[in-house]
Design brief:
By secondary structure, the protein is an all-alpha fold. The chain folds into two domains: about 80 residues, Helix Hairpins (Orthogonal Bundle), CATH 1.10.287.1080; about 35 residues. The chain is about 75% helix and about 0% strand.
């Protein structure tokens, strides 16, 4: 997901500033949630047409900045907890494939407890 050289830059950035002392799992998870909420603000109260217009404007950079913030906190959290995000994601896809069989859910947005 994140290139190793970018992850190393991110970890070095934090280490050089002595911010590891503030980055315990709880606070990283809180920060991840806060940044995800800031990402939501970019979409709030906008129609799909307005979003598409913004994506082609100078406002796109603000979206990319918020996505980068979310990614940074997720990367710190995975790094510090020793989680291989690629493996975790692959495992979750396998679980969801069992939970949401194509023949039962294709074209539906129901939660798995609703179609069983």
């Amino acid at each position: 997901m994140i290139k190793p050289e970018i992850l190393e830059r991110l970890i070095s950035f934090r280490r050089e500033r002595d911010w590891e002392q503030f980055h315990n799992p709880k606070d990283l998870a809180i920060s991840l949630s806060i940044e995800a909420s800031e990402l939501l603000e970019w979409f709030q109260w906008k129609t799909n047409d307005e979003i598409n217009i913004q994506l082609k404007s100078e406002k796109r950079q603000a979206l990319e900045d918020e996505l980068a913030d979310v990614t940074a906190y997720l990367a710190y959290l995975c790094h510090d907890l020793g989680v291989d995000i690629n493996q975790a994601l692959a495992t979750k896809i396998d679980k969801n494939a069992k939970k949401y069989p194509v023949d039962q859910v294709k074209g539906r947005a129901d939660k798995y407890t609703e179609y069983s």
